[in-house]
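Consider this one:
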Amino acid sequence: MNAPPANPPDEGQAALLEQLGSRSIVFVGLMGAGKTAIGRKVAAMLSLPFIDSDQEIETVSRMSVPELFERYGEPEFRALEQRVILRLLEHGPQVLSTGGGAFMNAQTREAIAVHGVSVWLKADLDLLMERVSKKQNRPLLKNPDPRGVLERLMGERYPVYATADITVPTRDALRSSRRCCDCDQRWGAFVNKTAPVKVEVGLGDRAYDILIGPGLLSDAGTEIARRLPGTRAAIITDENVAAAHLE
């Protein structure tokens, strides 16, 4: 665990910390998305401890992640990963970077939802390949076709990552960290866990729900992916609304 820096947070960051309370900021995403680099930067900005769950696993097991994979296999590693993350989440607030497969565990996702605010760092395939090719300690990529492995993992995991509280497309870790830390409307809404109001329109077989709440428009893609993974969507609007919101 890294000790928080001495510099106090500014007014905006102090407000975010107050909203955060005892919860942690939890970064999720595939290997190479920048979770550790951005996590460290955000932790420094907010004067919070930073923890990398893989490093914590290596500390408690006294083995490296590749060694754990090789000796015990992925299922045993995932079980240990789950226990470590659940324990860490009991001691917020902090900034926590998780392994790429951690958020795939339903119990871990539930714990993060209770004890934290989840942030998915969404990266495209070329960026991930550029970053992971610089390191040789990725157990899942010890394969003749690492690009194919990453494509498969994106297909499996991105619909689950999309259920995170906040999605941040990232191409540059340090630039994105500023965006993650800004106290904008979208971030504040999720930190406050302001639940949208659901209006049920009862029309029999044609029944549908309407969601009303802050920040919904900017996160419509994430909300749609959460409810209808893999579905194509259309936007229906008119000239007045389109002028203000279609883009």
Summary: The beta strands are 24-28, 50-52, 95-97, 116-122, 166-169, 197-201, 208-212. The first strand starts at residue 24 and ends at 28. Residues 126 and 147 are 9 Å apart (CA to CA).
